[in-house]
């Protein structure tokens, strides 16, 4: 039986023509959007679309998913694998960058395609099989105390597949925590249904959900309800954002986002400087400006609502502070 969230996912917008028509956008940029979507596909849920302003090409939610001709420009120091993730693969679908934790690539599927995605050129097709080899490596390495479910978006998997993964992890004594990196409670809140909550309640280890919201307009009543269900099922909720030009590069915007997240039961965690992946240079925010924004946030918000400004540096032992 198909769940409601799966039906909604199947109805996602996947062509520039439909996106432009749905939002009454000027079609002057349609050809460029088609070209950019040919290089990295377009996908946006109707739930997320409903939070965008019609006819507004600069809407901050639309900017995150709208293919642009800028994506096709070659920019120095921007490449397909800026974080050297291929070098961090220990087995198919298993990234081991930092001591104590490992990241399981559970799927390549996402509910929406964020145009700034740092894995837009990740070699998913080369990761043969599912998770058996990766789980074996985790079981044999007692230094791995936390497993991060990532992707793609792990909540694109069925509840049965999530259960398969966490049941295997339950049998590994040294795995103390499970972390789920997901955008779906934000862009597809219907995914947080009773089946998902039942799975979450059954996980043996403590579970941390790191959701991904970039702008306060993303947090509506449905998102707040989804986050409430996750908390009631036992999850700790954190948020990570990406600092994006034209989306959230302002003290007022990020302050409102932190307040909206707290109202939804989510604590701000990380604010990432964008990774230098090919096709995303137009989202870059100057580091000096980023630090000034952080100073403004610290003056405006209590410390627990100020995310840490970080960047990921290949080969570094952890995310590196940028402010």
Would you mind describing this structure in some detail?
By secondary structure, the protein is α/β, with parallel strands linked by helices. It folds into 2 domains: 4-72, no CATH class; 86-321, TIM Barrel, CATH 3.20.20. 33% of the residues lie in helices and 15% in strands. It has helices spanning 4-10, 16-22, 30-39, 46-49, 60-65, 132-140, 159-170, 184-187, 194-202, 221-232, 251-263, 287-300, and strands at residues 89-91, 94-98, 101-105, 146-150, 177-182, 207-211, 236-242, 267-272, 308-311, 320-321. It has a 10-stranded mixed beta sheet. The chain is globular and about 55 Å long. The chain starts with a helix and ends with a strand.
